[in-house]
Design goal:
It contains nine helices and nine strands. It is α/β, with parallel strands linked by helices. The termini are far apart.
Length: about 280
């Protein structure tokens, strides 16, 4: 079994557990973490003895999005050419973070391209922001703790959160999904449960227990039938997210002055001043 540094991948019977393990940074993504997650998801997908995955985060949060200090897509201190060089280097080293779109998997995300379509349950507590919300929204079933705070924060960073929106609005047909995309506002887990994005609402200390109860329900059904059901539900959002990803690559919001201003303001610990250009 592969050894990982930024995640934990364990198993118990038919259930696999993928734990994001950068608690000191609220499990924010780095290129290495994204690469390790993709390897672990592939390991789960191809292991015939594993039928269900529970995804969760160590520490105080599920995932606070991208670690802007370490992720290749946020090279705020460098030029455009330096950022592109960092992204290409990430590809050569096996990472797929900031250069993910170069592999054509942006719209398909983490779970849209798979061999076996095994069910994935996500357990969300604390922050699930930006990339964390994106990852959680792709999962087939969701357990939220009453501490959960979910947001499409790409918008507030000057980027497009359209792919996350496509996945959230597929399962939560509400103007609240539009509000999340347009404003980047954090929404509490209880509200997301009320509107149908989450299957269960619980407390943080019971979160994994509730996720395991859901996994036990899945394991009662024939595995090939559950995988067909997963395939059907994921196919709802893949075409929309892929089309939006193509549009996003054309808009290139990462080239705008507002995106660069977000980076400068973050580095200087001040409120950004946007100019719509």
């Amino acid at each position: 079994m592969t050894e990982y540094q930024t995640i934990n991948f364990t198993r118990k019977g038919r259930i696999a557990y993928l734990e994001l393990n950068r608690p000191e940074r609220h499990n924010a993504f780095t290129d290495q973490m994204e690469s390790e997650m993709r390897l672990a998801l592939m390991e789960f997908d191809l292991d015939e003895d594993l039928w269900v995955l529970i995804l969760h985060g160590a520490g105080k949060s599920f995932c606070a999005g991208v670690d802007v200090k370490e992720h290749s897509s946020f090279g705020f201190g460098g030029t455009d050419s330096e950022r592109a060089k960092n992204a290409l280097q990430a590809l050569r080293e096996g990472h797929v973070g900031g250069a993910q779109h170069l592999r054509g998997t942006g719209g398909e995300g983490w779970l849209g391209r798979t061999a076996n379509y095994k069910p994935v349950i996500v357990a969300v507590h604390g922050y699930a922001l930006g990339g964390g919300a994106h990852l959680a929204a792709e999962c087939d079933l969701m357990v939220v703790a009453d501490t959960a705070r979910v947001a499409i924060t790409e918008t507030t960073a000057g980027m497009s959160g359209s792919r996350t929106w496509a996945k959230i609005k597929t399962f939560m047909p509400s103007k609240l999904a539009s509000e999340m995309l347009i404003t980047g506002r954090q929404i509490e887990g209880a509200e997301l449960y009320r509107l149908g994005l989450a299957n269960r609402l619980t407390t943080e200390d019971k979160m994994l227990e509730v996720a395991e109860e859901l996994a036990a329900e899945i394991l009662k059904a024939p595995p090939l039938a559950t995988r067909d059901a997963v395939r059907v539900t994921r196919k709802q959002w893949v075409p929309i997210a892929t089309a939006l990803d193509e549009q996003m690559q054309l808009s290139r919001l990462d080239k705008t002055e507002d995106f660069k201003e977000y980076g400068r303001a973050f580095a200087e610990k001040r409120k950004p001043e946007y100019k719509a250009r």
